[in-house]
Design goal:
This protein has no helices and 14 strands. The chain is mostly beta strands. It has one domain (4-165): Jelly Rolls (Sandwich), CATH 2.60.120. The model has no long low-confidence stretch (mean pLDDT 88).
Amino acid sequence: MTATYDLIASVTLTTTATTVSFTSIPATYRDLVLVAKPVGFSGGNNQQASTHIRFNADTGNNYNFIDAGGDGTNTFSGVNSNLDYIDTGATVQLNNGVGIIQIMDYSTTNKHKTVLSRGNAFNAVRMVAGRWANNAAINAIEVFTVTVASRSYDTGSTFHLYGIVS
């Protein structure tokens, strides 16, 4: 059987926002895929801003992730523990960021949730593997940008949440 993607919800910003929320996510799919296409940001200076996620309004230090990437000349990697978010690797700056975030087994209640994400900005790519240390089924996802320099997603940013049917 070939897996198919069902669109659960879609948001296109008509005003600037620092947060986009998906709530009442049905528990009827195997996995979720979130596609984030932030088209720049308002406020602050022209530096980059990352796109983060958290689940079920959990703002505790229950998130861990590792990341790696490069731009063809330089590489980087890091380990990030006990945070209140997972950085998705989708970077906002000058309309170049996009992120594809896979959330596996989101509706199970017997294990921690895992996230695989890949994002790009400028001439670089970035991959992230994350974990939410909670057994609860995910029924809400908050997507947000860092609040450094009062940044927010610009009008026209799009966020699509898909359920994977296998």
